[in-house]
Design brief:
Length: about 130
């Protein structure tokens, strides 16, 4: 098992977390405390889930939750743009980051499912 901080998905997620922290910092107070806090918290949760998935025997539950929270982050970023809390450029940068994370999470989940299906099929062939 590699060090979690060396994985591309961790690096991408951490970069998104840093970027979101800057975006939230510049939101008006009333949005910062509601929308901004939720956006920041979801990014933190995704980062923690990546750490957990990297060390877990069964990564699938963590990866599934990453995908769900990823969709929430994209929704909150879109809402932030629609409410003009972030610029179109900031939106584009954030969505590019979330796109990368989503692709990596889906790939990792697909690999996990393939690995488990292959093991299950192999086990059935033995008996």
């Amino acid at each position: 098992m590699g060090i979690h901080s060396d994985t591309d998905i961790y690096k991408a997620t951490y970069s998104l977390l840093q970027y979101v922290m800057l975006l939230v910092k510049n939101m008006p107070r009333d949005f910062k405390q509601a929308l901004g806090a939720e956006l920041r918290d979801e990014c933190i949760k995704i980062t923690v889930l990546i750490l957990r998935a990297n060390t877990a025997q069964d990564k699938t539950p963590h990866l599934s939750e990453i995908r769900e929270r990823h969709q929430v982050v994209e929704l909150l970023i879109r809402l932030s743009r629609d409410l003009k809390l972030i610029s179109q450029r900031q939106y584009a940068e954030a969505i590019e980051m979330t796109g990368s994370i989503g692709k990596q999470a889906n790939g990792w989940l697909g690999f996990q499912r393939q690995t488990h299906e292959g093991q299950g099929h192999h086990d059935r062939a033995l008996f």
